[in-house]
Amino acid sequence: MKFIPANIFLFASLSILAQETLAQETVKPPTPSLHLQTCDTFPAGPDAHAILCLNNGKMRGYAPIGSMIALKPVPPPGTRIMRLVIAVNNRIVRQEEITDSRTLETYYLKIAPVAETSRRNVVVFIVDDTNQRITLIEATLFAREAPSPPKFTTKIEKERMYLTLADRKALGNIYVYINEEGIGKLDENASTDFDLRQLSPGTHKTRLVAENSDGDLLPSVEAEFVVSPRVKLEILEPKMTYFVSLTNQNMGLPVRVLRSDDCTAKKTRLYIAGELVGEYVPNKLDVSVSLRDVPSGKVELEAVAVGEDGVESPGETLEITLKNEGWENRTYSTPTYHRILENLPFIEKAEKEAQSWIARAKAEPAYQNYVRTNTRTVTDNGRVTTVEYLDTVRLPGKAGEYWATARTAVVEEAQYHLKNADLYRALKMKEAAKREYRRAILLAGSNTSTGSSAKAGLDSLNKERRTLKTQS
Asked: What are the tens digits of pLDDT across the range 426-470?
C-alpha cells in the first residue's frame, strides 16, 4: 500500500466508461493542486505511526516517519525563475539559483520524528526576475496514528472490470483512480464496474482513496490488473520480414486481422501511415492494402477494434520499412519538395549567425562581468542555442545588442524549420513534418508566435485521422 501521490488528486477525464454507480459530475478530492508526494511504502498495520500532511487545511494524507517526501514545485507558465527556496518552520533548508525555468526538479525532504504536539511548516517558494516571491507549496506536517484503509477486490470479465468493497460502512466519499487519473466518485453502493476497452494492453493500476465519516482521507489502497491485446495484425507476404520494396505500383500488401477471445468488437479499422483505408471483420478475410501513395521510410500499420457503440480501443501496431520508388519519383520532382531543399541553406546560415553573435557577446567585458557577479551559471549545457536559454541572460551595451541579434537569428532558424514542417506535411511525409515541428518548438520555445504555431501544427498532426478512402 502506498501513500497517494498528490498529482492523482487532479481530476482528469480518462476515456474509461463507468456505470451509473460512479457519480459522473466533475469531482475533485479535497486537494486540487498540491504537488506533495512520497515515494516510500506506507507502513503495514492500522497502528503505524505516520505524518499527516496538510495544505491550507484542504488535504490530508499519510507518509511514514523517517521517509522522504518528494516536493515537486510547478511554477506558473511563463515565469522566469531566478531562485528557489525551501523553508521549514521559517528556516531555510535549501536555496539554489535556477538556470532553466521550464521545469523544476523534484526535491526530497526527510520526515524526522516529531512529537504529536509539534508542527513542521514546509514552504516552497520561488523568486522571479522582478524579485517577486511566489509560493508554490505550503504544507504542515504533524504526527498522527494512521487509520486502516478500505479493502476491495477486482475481477475482469472480457472487457469489463468489476470492483467490490469489502465494507462500505463508516466511509464517506470514495474516489476511484485508474493509472493515477481520477475517473469518478463511488456513490453509496459497495460495487461498480468499468468498461476497459480504451485502455492499452499491459499492466494497469486501480486505486481507491476513501474518506472516513469525519472527512479525513484514509491511506490509499491499490491493485494491479492486466489488459490483454484485443486484435493482432499480421503481414502475410513477404513472410517473416518487415521490409517491403514496392516495384509494382498496383501491388497490395496482404495483411490479416485477428481478434482475441476477450474482444467483443465486430469490426476493425485499418490505418496505414495514419490514414484510414477501410473497415474489416476480424478473423474473416485477409486484406490487400494499397501502398501506392505511402511515402518511403518507416510506415506504421494499425488495427483498431471498434465496438457496436462506436467506441475505439487503442490500436495494435506493427512497423514496416517501405521502399516506394514510384512515390519517390513523383514526390522528389515536385516544386514543394524543391522548396524544402531551398530552405536548408537558410537554416544553416541562421544557425551559424546565432553562434557567431553569441561568441561576439561573450567576448565583451559586460558579459565577463556578468559571469563574475551573477551566481547563476550562464551556460546552455551543451544544448542547441534556444530562445528560452538566451532570454535567461540580460546584458548591457554592445554585449546586449549582440545577444539580441543572436536571438533574432535563432527565431529565423525556427521559422524555416516551421516552413519545412508545413511543406513536408503537404507531401504527407508526416514523420519528417513532426521532426521539423519539434525542432521549431525547441528553438523558438512555446511562448513565441513561431513556437506556438509549430506546437499547434504538431498537435494537429498527432491527432489527425483521415476519412475513409477507396482502395486504388
From this structure: 998 988 999 999 999 999 988 899 999 999 999 998 876 544 443
By the 10 Å C-beta count (0-12 exposed, 13-18 middle, 19+ buried), 410 is classed as buried
Domain ranges of the chain: 6-227, 231-331, 335-463
CB of 191 closer than 8 Å to CB of 119: no
pLDDT at 232 over 90: no
Nearest to residue 110, comparing CAs of 156, 165, 66, 176? 66
What are 17's three cell numbers?
466508461
- The H helix count followed by the E strand count for the chain is 7, 26
With cell 550562464, the residue in question is 378
Rounded to 10 degrees, the C-alpha dihedral 72/74/75/80 comes to: 60
Is-same-fold flag (6-227; 231-331)? yes
Higher pLDDT, 209 or 324: 324
What residues are paired with 290 via a beta bridge?
252
Considering only residues 111 and 176, tell me which one the structure prediction assigns the higher pLDDT.
176
Residue 202, SS3? strand
pLDDT confidence tier of residue 352, bands split at 50, 70 and 90: very high
The SS3 assignment for 158 reads coil
Evaluate whether 165 touches 150 at the Cβ level (below 8 Å).
yes
Residue carrying C-alpha cell 506533495: 36
In whole angstroms, give the CA distance from residue 133 to residue 266.
58
Query: What fold, for 6-227?
Result: Immunoglobulin-like (2.60.40)
Instruction: Determine if the pTM surpasses 0.90.
Output: no
CB atoms near residue 325 (< 10 Å): 12
3-state secondary structure of 245: strand
Distance CA 297, CA 424 (A): 14
The answer to whether residue 55 scores a pLDDT higher than 50 is: no
Q: What is the mean pLDDT of residues 257-282?
A: 85
- pLDDT at residue number 464: 67
In the sheet with 171-178, reading across from the earlier edge strand, the strands are 22-23, 181-186, 171-178, 202-212, 221-227
Structural domain 231-331, CATH architecture: Sandwich (2.60)
Q: Tell me the sheet residues that pair with 182.
A: 11, 177
